[in-house]
Each structure stands twice: as C-alpha cells, then as structure tokens.
Amino acid sequence: MKSAHFKQLTVSALLMLGAASPVYANSVFPALAANKTIGVQVKIQTFSSTDAEQIKAAGFGFVRFGVWTNSLGGSAYQKQISDAFAAAKAAGLPVLMTVRSTKALTSAPGNASELAAAGESFANSVKGLENSYGAQLVAIEIWNEPDLEKYWPTGNFDTTFVPFMSAVCKSLQDKPQSTPLIGFGFARPPSAGSGSTVALNKIVSLYPQCLSAISYHPYGMSGAQISNAQAFIQQNFHLPGVISEWGVPSLGSNGGIAAQAGKIGTFIADVKKLGIALTSIYEWKNSETGSNDRERNFGLLTSDGQAKPAKMAVSTQLNPQ
After folding, report:
1. What are the pLDDT digits (tens) for 197-233?
2. Which residue of 10, 74, 117, 306 is most buried, as measured by CB atoms within 10 A?
3. CB atoms within 10 A of CB 205
4. Range of the domain at 277
5. Residue 39 dihedral angles phi and psi, to the nearest 5°
6. Contact 300, 59 (CB under 8 A)
7. Which pLDDT score, from 0 to 100, does residue 82 have?
8. What's the pTM value of the predicted model, to 2 decimals?
9. What CATH number is attached to the domain comprising 21?
10. Which residues contact 164 (CB under 8 A, 6 or more apart)?
11. Total count of domains within the chain
12. d(Cα 140, Cα 187) in Å, to the nearest integer?
C-alpha cells in the first residue's frame, strides 16, 4: 500500500518518479483491476475459448486484437470479430481493440478534404464498434504503427496523418464515448523532433479531449529508456504513455527460448516498477502467417499451443505467490 503522501501526488508527478498507485491505473482504464494492467495480443483468426482460459490463468488482465475497418463489410469477418469478443467474455477478459485500415484511406493523399472525409468515416466505424462491444473494452486504440510506411498506406505520414487524424478526433471528441481512446500505436515512442511528436503536438493541442493516453511500441528498449519515454510523453503532451505492443522472438540468434523467457520476465518487472497503466505483450502464439522467421516466433506458445519457457516466466511475474 502506498503512503498517504504518494496517494496525493498528481499523475504527472507519479510518472516522473517512475511509480504509479493502483488508483492511478484504475482512473485511466476503469475496466482493469489495479494488478491486471498487463495483457497479451492475439489474432482473431486463431483466438479460441481455450486460449482465453489459458491467458486468464497465466495472469494476464486483458487481450489485444486488431480490427480492420476496410473489412467490416464482410459477414465472415464480422463473425470473426464477434467470436473473438465472445471467447474473451467467457473467460472474463476485457479487450484492447486496435482499429485501423489496411488499405489507403483516399485515392488522392494530398487532398485535405478527402482525408477529412475519410477521418469522419473512420470515426463512424469506431463508434459503431464501440456501440457493439463497448461493455467489454479496456480501450480503443486508433491505428497501429502509422510511423511505418507498411502500416500507413495512405502516403507521406508527415502530410497526411494530421489531417486524417484531426478529423477522427474532432468527430469522436464532439460525441464523447465512454470507452477510453488511446493513440496512435507508434512503432517508436515520440521523441524530440520526431514525426510522431510533431503530429501529436498538433492533434493534442487542437483536440485535447480526444485521447486518454499515448501508445507506443518500445521494442529493444531498456527499462531506463522506457522510463525516459514515459517522462517525455507526460511532459510534452500531458498524457500518460502506455505500451500497446512489445515482444521478443525466440530465435536461436537471440539466444533461443531461454533468452526469450528471461527478457520477457525482465520487461514485465520493469513496467511494473514504472507503474505503466497498460502494457500488452506481443504475442500469445507463434504466427504461421509471419513474413519471416522473426515474425513467426514471438509467441509465448508455439503455433500448435505448446508452451515455451516464456509462458512460465510470465506466470511467475503475474501470479506471484
């Protein structure tokens, strides 16, 4: 239990000190218990009720999965989404839902009015998803790694992201939702002079009520580097930083399954010390659809469900005796 002095500290001060109280964690994401702020990513195509039960037993507090707005018109895809939510619900796991498009948002990336219209349309999709699944959501994350060309197919990030996302935020802020909104799942945390920082400065200043937290993916970063990123985000945007994706593959070149387990254990210990309000591990199972060996071997389990040492390392951290 924190002392009365620490309970009275502001969110900003808590982050600066690298510690956060259970009250702070709950105030940002009410769907999460104070000791259940770490989750794991799954793919809706392979996520089952058995997976959900095992994820819950391992000590995770939620699951993260993606929904692609350009696929929402298909009935088979809609069923995959509803089945994934049903599996999570049966196990008592709330969901961090990351929403993006896998196709270019407009045919003319330089057209500001088209980007704004695309933003309004995207926001309507987000609202529709929240109306359907809001009771189960930890948060809605807007986009995934837009600072990488692969995940931002609309064109030049520096010129297209702000017009689009400003329209998204305006629409969502004008009709406030009950689910926390986080963004924008940057591949690297915002830093001085980075494109993500420039974009966030514009969006957050124009629409200060849009986001509840800034999300990023600190692959390869140490605990000290993550702490510095948290402080930078709080100081510059007056919002908490959260980790919506981090993992390490079990490749022989990285030390294999034993090294993966050790690094994951260290990472979880670090983020617990930092009091980060939400962290998602990548990922529950190996992915057979990955484009290379690295991408196929991030799982805590093999693709056929056999546990790696990393799963035990997670359980040790999340289910302390």
Report:
1. 999 999 999 999 999 999 999 999 999 999 999 999 9
2. 117
3. 9
4. 4-318
5. -125, -170
6. no
7. 98
8. 0.91
9. 3.20.20.80
10. 105, 115, 116, 118, 119, 122, 154
11. 1
12. 17
